[in-house]
Design brief:
With 152 residues, the chain is mainly α. It is built from seven helices and four strands, in the order αααββααααββ. A hairpin with a 3-residue loop joins strand 3 and strand 4. Helix 1 crosses helix 3, helix 2 (36-43) packs across helix 3 (47-59) and helix 6 (110-117) packs across helix 7 (121-133).
């Protein structure tokens, strides 16, 4: 099943609302996030959409999923334990999903990304490897990394 275009991805909008609640202090480190069912009811979406929104926060390093407990807001100290390349990859993935880098567009080169994120080129290569591994980009000889148009 193909995902909707990023501009239509409701789960990203829900994740943004929940992210704002975390950053705004309404949900504090150690607080339990609402369940999938509660998010589904609050936003009037299917449970699978709620699950994707919560998974997005987890992938971004803002929450941890604990068995038999639920999803818990991480402290800044815990979030900082996420490897730097993964945090950079998460930012790039978010930019792709929100349409900052639409399908067919070229990502900035390694040197430009290294400057943008104040990171080494090896860290940037690892972050880009995450995008490659997820099938979000492809390397085109002479052009660099291009956002795939046929993402699943």
């Amino acid at each position: 099943m193909a995902r909707p275009k990023s501009s239509d991805a409701v789960y990203l909008k829900i994740a943004a609302v929940l992210r704002d609640r975390i950053r705004g202090g309404q949900l504090k480190p150690g607080d339990k996030l609402p369940s999938e069912a509660a998010v589904s009811a609050e936003f009037g979406v299917a449970r699978g959409t709620a699950r994707e929104a919560l998974r997005k926060l987890e992938n971004d390093g803002l929450v941890d999923a604990l068995p038999a407990v639920g999803r818990i807001v991480r402290s800044e100290e815990q979030a900082d334990k996420t490897p730097r390349y993964r945090r950079i990859a998460a930012e790039l993935i978010a930019a792709i999903e929100t349409g900052d880098y639409p399908p067919g567009s070229q990502l900035p080169g390694e040197a430009q990304l290294a400057e943008q994120f104040q990171a080494s080129r090896n860290t940037i290569r690892s972050a880009l490897g995450e995008l490659d591994g997820r099938g979000l980009v492809e390397v085109v000889h002479g052009k660099g990394r291009i956002v795939r148009t046929d993402r699943a």
